[in-house]
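Structure in, sequence out. Go:
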């Protein structure tokens, strides 16, 4: 019972970390795409 609680909390933290990493990755891609778009628009 206690072990399953620990496993649940660990998996929850792990899922949150993966979600944060995915959001950061998406933000970086979006930022690069927008900067390239602006550079192409300027030149």
């Amino acid at each position: 019972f206690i072990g399953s609680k620990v496993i649940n909390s660990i998996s929850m933290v792990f899922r949150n970390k993966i979600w944060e990493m995915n959001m950061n990755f998406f933000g970086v891609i979006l930022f690069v795409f927008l900067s390239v778009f602006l550079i192409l628009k300027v030149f």
